[in-house]
Amino acid sequence: xxxxxxxxxxxxxxxxxxxxxxxxxxxxxxxxxxxxxxxxxxxxxxxxxxxxxxxxxxxxxxxxxxxxxxxxxxxxxxxxxxxxxxxxxxxxxxxxxxxxxxxxxxxxxxxxxxxxxxxxxxxxxxxxxxxxxxxxxxxxxxxxxxxxxxxxxxxxxxxxxxxxxxxxxxxxxxxxxxxxxxxxxxxxxxxxxxxxxxxxxxxxxxxxxxxxxxxxxxxxxxxxxxxxxxxxxxxxxxxxxxxxxxxxxxxxxxxxxxxxxxxxxxxxxxxxxxxxxxxxxxxxxxxxxxxxxxxxxxxxxxxxxxxxxxxxx
Length: 313
Prior knowledge:
By secondary structure, the chain is an alpha/beta fold. The chain is 32% helix and 21% strand. It has helices at 21-33, 42-53, 75-79, 96-99, 106-109, 147-157, 175-189, 202-211, 231-240, 256-270, and strands spanning 63-69, 86-93, 116-119, 132-138, 158-169, 215-228, 277-289.
């Protein structure tokens, strides 16, 4: 895998430091070492499968170099094993413990292509320009401070006609938990602190792909709703997923009575007839192509020969 560090990853835009990247690295390391770590794999594994399924619509391509950007424990690589058009896979994650969590099961999980592993900061892509055929990022970029810079680097790293494909959490993710904490803290403490990370909007993803000069960008979204027995079970699962709060201005301590009030508010506002609670995960899927002369291009403005009003006649 040809490597080089981009000297100016941030480009010509301001970067707002929202997330503590070192805290996130430590959270993922702790999650990987948790005795029940694999119990938190269900959502990442499902979304990775749905992302990889989108490659089925792309015909006639050979993926010599595939990068799983923000790979966690390697879910994307597992779902690429049955594809003859994939030759090599490189898994990249800032957490060494999470990246190597399942290394002892490589032959079982990766019967055809055992991936390379690369520990690196997910805000700086270490690949030479024009060296990668396919970059996949599944549920990792939501902890990125410089999301525009990462998308620009992805386009620079791709060969012409290469693909950037992925999924990122959207703004409706964990809306129930956010609202429950808001109600509880207003009632108990007379204020509100960020207990849930801010997430991106669907329109932002499309705009960033176009700003990075990706061709043929496509964005769509769906909500995955998971039921939990209570809010404490949800928060436990977020912890073993490595998805605990890493906002720089996050509260370092939450009072027990506030936690209990948040759990009660959650059940009161969103509780289901069977006693469980739902948690919404909005998934934004996206795809963009590195520009190539063979790709279709829009016609020039004013070149149409038929009026829209004539189409129904």
